[in-house]
Write a structure and sequence with these properties.
Pathway: Isoprenoid biosynthesis; isopentenyl diphosphate biosynthesis via DXP pathway; isopentenyl diphosphate from 1-deoxy-D-xylulose 5-phosphate: step 2/6. The chain is α/β, with parallel strands linked by helices. Helix content is about 30%, strand content about 20%. Helix 2 links the parallel strand 4 and strand 5. It is globular, with a radius of gyration of 18 Å. The structure holds cytidine-5'-monophosphate.
C-alpha cells in the first residue's frame, strides 16, 4: 500500500462506495463478475485495496449481490486489508443506480466526500483516486476521471429492418469527447440529493449531478483504470498484474 498518498486533513473525511452487485453477463457464464479471480485474488478485493490504498479514504462500503452479502463479508475477512480503513458490506439492488443508493444509505455521518467506484475497475492506481479526492476538496461538487478517445465515435439510428446496417446520424468531434472512468468523487450532500431527485436511468453517477444542473469536472484518468467487461479485458488485467509484479521485483 502506498504511504505517500494524499493524507486526510482534519475536518474532511472520505468514504468510498463500491457497487459490486452486477452479474457481469458480458463476461460469460460463472460467478458474479466482482467475485471472479484476477491473479488468484477476487476482482472485488483488488478494487477494495485500490481505494483503501488512499490514505484519505477512511471507510469503504461494498455493495454486494443481493443474496451474497455474507459471502462478500467473509471474503473481506479472508484477505489482508489496511487497518486504518473501516469496511461495511450491504446488499445491492436490481440496477447499478439502486445499488449505489443503498450504499449511500449505509454511510454513517461524518464523511463529507464520497467516491463511487466500480468493482469492475480493479486496477485503478492510487494517484488517480487521490487526484479525484483533491479536486473535490478544492471545491468541485462532482469529479470524474477520464481519458481522450482512441476511436472515432459515430451516433447511429435504428436499422430500417432487423439485421440491416444501422445508419450513421452524426460524428461528434473526437477531440471534445472523453471516456469516463471511476472512482467518481462527490460532495456527499450533492450526490445524496442527486440520488433522491433523479429517477432517469443513467450509466454513471456524475450524470445524475448533471441532471440537477450542477457542474461536473474532469481530471486525467489512467489507462489501467479500465473496466473489466468482456473476456479480453480479463487477459489485459492479468497482463497488467504480471507487469506490476515484475516491476515490484526490481
Ligand atoms: O454493468 P456495469 O459494468 O456497468 O456495472 C458497473 C458496476 O456496477 C459493477 O461493479 C457492477 O457490479 C455494479 N452493479 C451493481 N448493481 C447492479 C448492477 C451493476 O452494483 N444491479
Amino acid at each position: 500500500m502506498s504511504d505517500d498518498s494524499l493524507p486526510s486533513p482534519a475536518g474532511t473525511r472520505t468514504a468510498a462506495v463500491i457497487p459490486a452487485a452486477g452479474r457481469g453477463v458480458r463476461l460469460g457464464p460463472g460467478a458474479p463478475k466482482a467475485l471472479r479471480a484476477l491473479g488468484g485474488t477476487p476482482m472485488l478485493i483488488h478494487a477494495v485495496r485500490a481505494l483503501a490504498a488512499s490514505r484519505a479514504v477512511s471507510l469503504v462500503v461494498v455493495v454486494a449481490p443481493p443474496d451474497g452479502a455474507a459471502e462478500v463479508r467473509s471474503l473481506l475477512d479472508a484477505h489482508a486489508l489496511p487497518e486504518r480503513t473501516d469496511f461495511l458490506v450491504v446488499p445491492g439492488g436490481e440496477t447499478r443506480q439502486e445499488s449505489v443508493r443503498l450504499g449511500l444509505d449505509a454511510l454513517p455521518e461524518g464523511h463529507d466526500i464520497v467516491l463511487v467506484h466500480d468493482a469492475a475497475r480493479p486496477l485503478v492506481p492510487v494517484d488517480t483516486v487521490d487526484a479525484v479526492i483533491e479536486a473535490v476538496r478544492d471545491g468541485a461538487l462532482a469529479v470524474v476521471p477520464a481519458l481522450p478517445l482512441a476511436d472515432t465515435v459515430k451516433e447511429v439510428g435504428a436499422a430500417p429492418a432487423p439485421g440491416a446496417p444501422e445508419p450513421v446520424v452524426a460524428t461528434p468531434e473526437r477531440a471534445r469527447l472523453r471516456a469516463v472512468q471511476t472512482p467518481q468523487g462527490f460532495d456527499r450532500q450533492t450526490l445524496v440529493r442527486a440520488h433522491r431527485t433523479v429517477t432517469d436511468e443513467v450509466t454513471d453517477d456524475a450524470g445524475m449531478v448533471e441532471k440537477l444542473g450542477l457542474g461536473v469536472v474532469v481530471v486525467p484518468g489512467h489507462e489501467e483504470a479500465f473496466k473489466v467487461t468482456r473476456p479480453l479485458d480479463l487477459v489485459l488485467a492479468e497482463a497488467v498484474l504480471t507487469r506490476r509484479r515484475l516491476n515490484d521485483g526490481f
